[in-house]
Amino acid sequence: MAEFTFHHGGVSVPDLDAAIDWYGRVLGFALEKKFYIAAARSHTAMVKKGPLRFEIFAVEGAAPLPEDRRHPPRDVKTHGNKHVAFRVADLDAFLVEMGEKGADIAFVVRESFGKGCFIRDCAGNLIEFVEEPDA
Length: 135
Prior knowledge:
Number of domains: 2
Pfam families: Glyoxalase_4
Domain VOC: 5-132
Strand order of the largest sheet: 1-4-3-2
Distance between the termini: 28 Å
Structural class: alpha/beta
Protein name: VOC family protein
Organism: Novosphingobium ovatum
Keywords: Metal-binding
Order of helices and strands: EHEEEHEHEEE
């Protein structure tokens, strides 16, 4: 089987500069590069935090995010990509930090199978953060 590693996740937003600011201020991503994709009519940026990257698209004339895509339990009822997820060491500490930064906390999960949360970026895109139990 061919070997591969994760490179990036992608999100579409209405305002590229606002998204670059949000991903930097709230999650600590730094701008790696900005570029224009003519075929998609997209002003685009790649932001990076360590080995993690997000590609942010601001496509001319794009439709807004449908309301159902903003809520995790409803979003999974529509086929397609759902979200990216990151591991955090301490969910409660992470939630406090996100609250202090004014992040839009969409959903918190505390179940026997694990715990985590979803936040929305400045355009409503869902991002999951998971605390894995000790092995």
